[in-house]
Amino acid sequence: MLDLKFIRNNLDSIEQMLQNRNTDVDLSEFRSIDTKRRQLLTEVEGLKNKRNTCSDSIALLKRQKEDASAQIAEMREVSREIKQLDAQISQLDAQLDALIHMIPNMPHESVPVGSGEEDNPVVRTWGERPSLDFEPQAHWTLGEQLGILDFERGAKITGARFTLYRGAGARLERALINFMLDEHTTRHGYTEVLPPFIVNKTSMTGTGQLPKFADDLFKLEGLDYYLVPTAEVPVTNIYQNEILEAHELPVYFTAYTPCFRKEAGSYGKDTRGLIRQHQFNKVELVKFAAPDNSYEELEKLLADAESILQKLNIHYQVVNLCTGDLGFSASKTYDIEVWLPGQGVFREISSCSNFEDFQARRANIRYRPKEGGKTRYVHTLNGSGLAVGRTLLAILENYQQEDGSVVVPEVLRPYMGGMEVIR
RNA sequence: GGAGAGGUGGCCGAGUCGGCUGAAGGCGCUCGCCUGCUAAGCGAGUGAGUGGGGAAACCUGCUCCGAGGGUUCGAAUCCCUCCCUCUCCGCCA
């Protein structure tokens, strides 16, 4: 959510931003609702002031055992007016609130203007494509042949886009989770948290999933509870409605959670394999930072995520999302895309973003600056470190051998009971 | 799930029969004094949000005592609904 005053003073640049993001939010009514609201506010506050002072004098009269019925009668009328104005104001508040919750974040100046993913510039590339002297297979073929991924039974148990992992597959998934958490906690300074996997509406609104993206979420029947679509939601909301001290910043959290997404609007896309599931595992990185160094923190967070792929020795590239591809709440996002030889493409495996104060304002997360003075909103950041299912499939495709077996990356062997090859 | 108690400022904790309590007192924090240094002591200050005025320091209105409604001229204080915490019982991994 953007600052109301900022919106008021920068309507033109916001309109431009909406265009760059290919979003259509109608701001034409903003001005009139905002002015009307402030008008009524001034009016009702004047009346409340009158009521407050009169109440004091009524109290005084009562204490002196004098008659106050004239004032009381007058105030009865004033109170009626106040009630009426308050009702009008809260209606305008609701309208304004609905409007500003639909406005996406302002992109950072380093974000290129572009219309879609084809306009995302590549920031850097790491490693090389594996030289396979045979026709590489897609992970779904490898996984089924090895008996470690069972798509049919996943679909039987639940439905499309659910997968059953078996044997070495299940263990590899677990190995990856542990490996990633260990790296981030022991080498990169993150504190591990294990949050609830179900959150309420306030938390969803705090990080920006609601109200706009309700269709992507699994909601529990009859409750205002939702399955988490990412650990970003519960972890960022750890400090919802809190004021941190400057010396506590930055705070680094890492969390493993399953993620649940309806993937509405992706019918027919990525129907095969592990790429797009309704349930997947992810290790997330979340930071709370002071505004003056949040972009340095973003670079470090990105490097922390990249280091996992480097240790696994998998070729990847980093792209800077352009305005047309940038997420609703983000000011700036880097995607890490891994090379998938079985499909001959780069696929997103991590998304690292700085939200600046957009989420902090919604979730009311502030800090007290060192130099004192008014509290300020923190900057929130997060990134996948990494998406576990996609990492597993990247390993299958990059480490496959001609006979369909898959070599276990060295760093994972201790987590796999020493297993060197899945066959 | 049943019974009871409770939710007040960064923290702890008073708030009597509704009015002078945005909130006593303490802790913490900040500044000053004192001290060879530290501690102790002394003095002063110290909530948030949102409007208006001012170049600014600052002045000023309104709102906020778990959340939302209600009663009243007036509510932290009374009533209703919901949420959360604690204790006991029941159930349970």
Can you describe what's shown?
The chain has twelve helices and 17 strands. Helix content is 39%, strand content 20%. The strands form five sheets. It has an eight-stranded mixed beta sheet. It is elongated, with a radius of gyration of 27 Å. The mean pLDDT is 92. With 423 residues, the protein is of the alpha+beta class. Helix 3 packs antiparallel against helix 4 and helix 7 crosses helix 12. It binds one RNA strand of 93 nucleotides through helix 3 and helix 4.
Q: Count of helical segments?
A: 12
Averaged pLDDT? 92
Helix coverage percent of residues? 25-40%
By DSSP, the count of extended strands is: 17
Task: Report the sheet-strand fraction.
Answer: 15-25%
Going across the major beta sheet, what is the strand order? 1-10-11-12-15-9-8-4
Based on secondary structure, the structural category is alpha+beta
N-to-C SSE string, H for helix and E for strand: HHHHEHEHEHEEHEHEEEHEEEHEEEHEE
- N-C termini distance: 51 Å
Cα radius of gyration in angstroms: 27 Å
What overall geometry do the principal axes of the alpha carbons give? elongated
